[in-house]
Amino acid sequence: MAYEQIDYAVDDAVATITLNRPDKLNAYTAVMGAEIAAAIGEANADDAVRAIILTGAGRGFCAGADISGGADSFGSGGPNFAAPDRPRDGAGFVGALFDSAKPTIAAINGPAVGVGITLTLPCDIRVAADTARIGFVFARRGLVPEAGSAWFLPQLVGLPQALRWCLSGRVFDAAEALAGGLVSEVLAPDALIPRARAIAQEIADHTAPVSIALTRQMLWRFAGAPLPFELLEVDGPLAQRLGAGPDVREGVAAFLEKRAPDFPGRIATDMPKGYPWW
After folding, report:
1. Strands across the sheet with 14-19, in order?
2. Rounded to whole angstroms, how far apart are CA atoms 92 and 184?
3. Which of 84, 108, 140, 232 is the most buried (most CB within 10 A)?
């Protein structure tokens, strides 16, 4: 598929989605959002892809919404709402990231403000360059947190930290993001993508695709459950079905033989009965 505002490339089982409006610090538009969702779908449909990296071109990750339309940038005709010929598809990029069967890694290579940071929250792992500047600036623009971030952010960093960042609307540095639990690592800019790829490659080399797809959905979908009993109704049957299957046999054999596993299961054809359970 041809994209206008992102780049999509696959190399060694890793798909990289690059926000590609560097002259505007990759400012977000509805077109970009639709293309992110489409690229996630493309990666999920490709069994050769084991993990997805999301990053930005140039010196910025995403400087927030495109406000080239001035005060009317967020109106119904502004660049941040879907054009009539490209309507919003359900939950858009948020739903695509949340529902992904492949693990997602956000490599925050520079400024990530407003939607530029909230679009990373459905990702499974976030790493940042030490030059990154981050801000949940919505209240300073008269807006509310969007892209589901009022749910995602407290899940990731806890309610007190989420309130502190969102109620002030201030921009903070990567060190504060690390201390607050928003990112797991802060690296020099030239080390960021190699580190993201190393994380992705570790997943690709050592884990089973079907197991990963199930695991990330179980963790995300039950993270806010008040009790474990609904989860037990899901994880028990899944463990039994996987336990009798070829992936587990290969995983055990590889461990006993002290070699790398070669899992036969594929997401396209081998998801167990009971998936999706929601």
Report:
1. 6-11, 14-19, 51-56, 104-108, 125-129, 185-187
2. 26
3. 108
Phi, psi at 18, each rounded to 5°: -115, 120
Task: Look up tokens 């197991």; give the residue.
Answer: 211
Q: Does residue 137 contact residue 169 with C-beta atoms inside 8 Å?
A: yes
Among candidate residues 119, 100, 43, 128, the one with its CA nearest the CA of residue 219: 100
- Judge if pTM exceeds 0.90: yes
| Mean pLDDT score, 51-57 | 98
Tell the residue number behind the tokens 């998936």, with chain if given.
Answer: 275
Q: Which of 159, 65, 186 is nearest to 118 (CA)?
A: 65
Task: Give phi and psi for 78, each to the nearest 5.
Answer: -75, 170
Tell me the DSSP string of the chain.
---SSEEEEEETTEEEEEE--GGGTT-B-HHHHHHHHHHHHHHHT-TT--EEEEEESTT-SB-SB--TTGGGTTSTTSTTS--TTS---TTHHHHHHHT-SS-EEEEE-S-EETHHHHTTTTSSEEEEETT-EEE--GGGGT----TTHHHHHHHHH-HHHHHHHHHH--EEEHHHHHHTTS-SEEE-HHHHHHHHHHHHHHHHHHS-HHHHHHHHHHHHHHTT-SSSHHHHHHHHHHHHHHHTSHHHHHHHHHHHTTS-------HHHHPPTT-S--
Task: Give yes or no for a cis peptide into 276 (omega within 30° of 0).
Answer: yes
Each residue's pLDDT tens digit, 26-40: 999 999 999 999 999
